[in-house]
Amino acid sequence: GAVVSQHPSWVICKSGTSVKIECRSLDFQATTMFWYRQFPKQSLMLMATSNEGSKATYEQGVEKDKFLINHASLTLSTLTVTSAHPEDSSFYICSVQGRREMGTDTQYFGPGTRLTVL
Amino acid sequence: QQQVKQSPQSLIVQKGGISIINCAYENTAFDYFPWYQQFPGKGPALLIAIRPDVSEKKEGRFTISFNKSAKQFSLHIMDSQPGDSATYFCAARQGAAGNKLTFGGGTRVLVKP
User: Fold this and answer.
1) Is omega for the bond preceding A86 within 30 degrees of 0, making it cis?
2) Is the confidence at residue B54, as pLDDT, over 70?
3) Are B66 and B33 in contact (CB under 8 A)?
4) B31: nearest CA in chain A?
5) Per-residue pLDDT tens for A76-106?
6) How far is A17 from chain B (nearest CA, A)?
7) Residues of A in contact with B46 (CB under 8 A)
8) What number is the average pLDDT over the span B58-71?
9) How far is A60 from chain B (nearest CA, A)?
């Protein structure tokens, strides 16, 4: 599998500020990373697909100007929540697309970042 | 519209018992079906996965059964242990759509000692 880290693991910010979350692939060069958000006791919802060297592809209903994604290298993708509001409080998780079995790509997840907006 | 339906929402099993979680899908374009285990405050961890050309896959205490004609698949956790208490998510991947994963709603499993 792939080892994925996220930083920070948790963050508290004031309403109106911007927060950047980093996702790193530690042992694998990832051309594709995914960003999810998860509300308490709910499932994971895909926000966007991050492709190295190109613009991210956002899922329907996700504001691309609010959730800025940059995938500048094969090991790093960042998610910036701009002008955060309390409703943006959530658990944000990234994943790396890696190869588990021959010919099969699957996703390996980071530990997540808990964002609380006051 | 939820494309992957997972049941039950929660499950309580005695230590040593069998936990069974079921998922059903509609989109025949799905081509890979992983299961993830998630502990509170942590990211999901890949547990086991199956492709639709295989009817069963076993890894240790975890077994996936897959019924392509019924578009259903299930996870069996044998000899359940308290450490297995977690939330389990089934997922389905659509390779032709950029390998996106669609997740089921999750099942909270509690294994009582």
Assistant:
1) no
2) yes
3) yes
4) A104
5) 999 999 999 999 999 999 999 865 554 456 7
6) 24
7) 1, 100, 106-109
8) 96
9) 13
